[in-house]
Amino acid sequence: MNPNASAIAAYLRHLQTVRKLSPHTLDGYGRDLQQLRQLADALDLDAIATNDIRRYAATLHARGLEARSIARKLSCWRGFFEWLAEQTTLACNPVDGVKPPKRAKTLPKALGVDDAVHLVSATTAPPGMQATPEQICNHAMFELLYSSGLRVAELVGVDLRYTRIEAGGHVSAGWLDLDGGEVTITGKGQKMRSVPVGQAALAAIKAWLPVRATLVRQDDSGDAAALFVSSRGTRISPRLVQLRLKAHGQALGIPANVHPHVLRHSFASHVLQSSGDLRAVQEMLGHASITSTQVYTALDFQRLAQVYDSAHPRAKKKPL
Questions:
Q1: Is the pTM of this model over 0.70?
Q2: Which one of 139, 264, 265, 270 is the catalytic residue?
């Protein structure tokens, strides 16, 4: 095997076995490191210098890659070279001191309260018609996403209750406590947290459970434990949740590109607007740093500024 490919494969095994990163995250690291290998061409990875890394970043920027994506790649490469220095005689980390291009500050997109409530509470069943199993499942999933601010990967990992299946090797990454009104999930960095579940979401989930019982696979796999399953009885996938939510938003005429993270942003923004408790929002979102949560204070200020501009008599622009 090529030495570069061998080093990358060994590092990915380290991330999988020692750091316990998720398959999705490992795929991203693998793509970023393969791109580093392609940019290096015939150059051995342990011979790459800081100027090479700057040139690679400039090449990616010239290709139109966003600053956020370049920053992610640099972070991945930096971690790889740190690990490589422990395995070899690498003198220094060539990524140290290399900064990504400056990126424009963008705020997360959140729905207004009325749109968010309409999105998660409405069904698309025709008037007088009974909702289909898919629509009942969608209602429960969308209510839970908005109620508890879950990431889509956290949502699909939730089991009906804590389960440990020895034969299938399944151990719950998340589970629902209906009586306690909370959901426990495993988030980024394998950190677990418990988040309250609102009454509307609990009611939608209770309506889904009898339907789930008719669909779910009865075997010793992790699918049998899943709270949300597809029409085939298997654990629902993140991609299917994304497609269903987008179609639901379009059917309701929501004037936004609706995806699961929009509901997470909406949850954070709306709770912060009502409570002003940044630390509580940080805990519920599972953010390691409060800096990640502070972006929602800007959203809150935007809303206040809009109210001020529309209501205060001295805020209006003078006519020309």
A1: no
A2: 264
